[in-house]
Amino acid sequence: MTRITKFVPGEYFHIYNRGVNKMPIFLDDFDYKRFQKLLYMINSVNITKPSDQNNKKSPYPVWTKNNDDSLVEIGAYCLMPNHFHLLVKSKNETNTALFLQRLQLSHSKYFNIKYDRSGSLFQGKVKATHITDDKQLKYLYSYIHLNPIKIIDPKWKENDTNNKDEKLNYLDGYKYSSYLDFLSQRQESLIINNLAFPKYFSTPEIFKSEIFDWLKIKPYE
Length: 221
Hints:
alpha+beta, globular, 4 strands, 5 helices
């Protein structure tokens, strides 16, 4: 499949992909953590590949890299057992495409080596949807961050107002998205750059109170 979306500089994009035949792309905590660090480490014009290809003890030794220009700005992300979602702001077509190529190639190589498999891990090239207005962007913040709820409620979008406290409690314990980074700072917060995106959430309380409401906005799909 050929990606036809052009990564226009300064524009926002919903990036997503899943495992081939819907197979899992993360099988343990290490897989998730390595992908999170990958989002951070490869997002640089001067880094060509991750340094831990054979490191079995830790995804990366520390959360640090050279202070140089990022390839893209990441506003939100979510990792699920068989797919991932990213909200990115493009700087230019070349750098965005390079970032996504690095991301999939590195994770595929790592995953295939670790689990002694061969062949494609992802279902083709990454998918990209151009976000063209403010309503779509708000909806996407909700959609990405609420996505893990489908693990405990497969019909979460239809039941978005049911058991809201239970769902929020579940998200409070889900480590593999940027949801927690909108509530407080942690080392993984270095992945995202909120300054490059509209300031929708002035406080964590507003973020938690409005995130379900924005899911009701007409989707862009």
